[in-house]
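ok so dumb question maybe but i'm new to this and my supervisor (M.) told me to 'just get the structure for DUF202 domain-containing protein' and walked off. so i did the thing. is this what she meant?? sequence i used:
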Amino acid sequence: MGRRARNRTDAEPRAKAKAPRPKATDALTPARKVIAAYLGAAGFIGVLTLLGIATIAGTFGPILVFLVVLGVSVAVQRAVAARIEGIELSDDDRVMRMLATGVLITAVVLALISAVVSLFAG
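this is what came out, is it supposed to look like this??
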């Protein structure tokens, strides 16, 4: 048997409009927002390092990539350290900060290896 459609009368309340969904970043603490941005910047620097090593040719190209990566990495790390100074971090925050620092260190080491190889190979 089929269902009967029920007519709504004025006495029945209407369904409430849905409230807007909160953004994922609304629930983050300020320290976690900074660390998330730090991790994103570290990943971006890592990708740019690989692209720079692969595309900039010549003897001094990899040296230039190394100097730029080193400068940007130090600047980003210092900016993050200044922003979260004095804030107590959870274990998860410390792990994410260590992960981002590791990505930056890896990018700098790869750029350094590329610069050294370009000096001795060319």
